[in-house]
Amino acid sequence: MKAGAILETVIYAADPQAAGRFYRDIFGLEEVRSVEGRFVFLRCGGQMLLIFNPEATRDPAHQNGIPAHGATGAGHLCFRAEDGAELDRWRARLAGAGIPLEHEQIWKGGARSIYLRDPAGNSVEIAEAAIWGL
Amino acid sequence: MKAGAILETVIYAADPQAAGRFYRDIFGLEEVRSVEGRFVFLRCGGQMLLIFNPEATRDPAHQNGIPAHGATGAGHLCFRAEDGAELDRWRARLAGAGIPLEHEQIWKGGARSIYLRDPAGNSVEIAEAAIWGL
Known about the structure:
Two copies of one chain form a homodimer. Chain A folds into two domains: 1-73, Roll (2,3-Dihydroxybiphenyl 1,2-Dioxygenase, domain 1), CATH 3.10.180; 74-134, 2,3-Dihydroxybiphenyl 1,2-Dioxygenase, domain 1 (Roll), CATH 3.10.180.10. Chain A is built from three helices and eight strands; from the N terminus they run E-H-E-E-E-H-E-H-E-E-E. The first copy, chain A, has helices spanning 16-27, 54-57, 84-96, and strands at residues 6-12, 30-35, 39-44, 47-52, 76-81, 103-106, 112-117, 123-128. In chain A, the strands form two sheets. Chain A has a four-stranded mixed β-sheet with strand order 1-4-3-2. In chain A, strands 5-8-7-6 form a four-stranded mixed β-sheet. The longest helix of chain A is centred in the C-terminal third of the chain and has 13 residues, at 84-96. At the A-B interface, strand 1, strand 4, strand 5, helix 3 and strand 8 of A face strand 1, strand 4, strand 5, helix 3 and strand 8 of B. Strand 1 (6-12) of chain A pairs antiparallel with strand 5 of chain B.
């Protein structure tokens, strides 16, 4: 058997609502559910981005039977850009929103990634799918 | 602008090679690149699962300009099952491989998730896409 897709990608933030607003406002994700101080769930195409406060989710007593988890420190995720033209539109979008780029990487073969930080300090990348041959 | 897809999902493991073998052997992911003690990159359909040793990636001196990141504690991710029949095939696959289920959740509406742990302690879920209306 092969898993065909990742349905939920998770990052952590001490203030999930602030992080959720960032992903909604900057990346256009659709907020599906939010519980103050605990989590925000957002839709990104056919996938979900779940943002949890690790102080809440790592406590089994507050998980209603759902297995506990919760990490601290900067996480990382990467959004897909179809091509270099879309990446350039994202660069303009971020500049217009006053969000500094931390780094730009030109990979072997010429496809590119740009990097920024979310309000919780997670490393956010936007990459041309070609960097993985996808 | 809207981000259309998450290209890279990240989890952390002190032994990324051991975790990588687990995702390759149990979930059928394709190993794309591996550097001992640092990372394993695996393909899952049109997405990538990146497994990093946070002790390595959080050190800017070893990142060659790529922004540092690295979290500790149990993370979480969820693979997509198309329907309940696929979820049942995963349950049988896990039982055959001797991997205990930590929990089964029946969500409102009847769609289900099953939960297990990877070798690094991350919480791995397999869920019917219907739990998110996807």
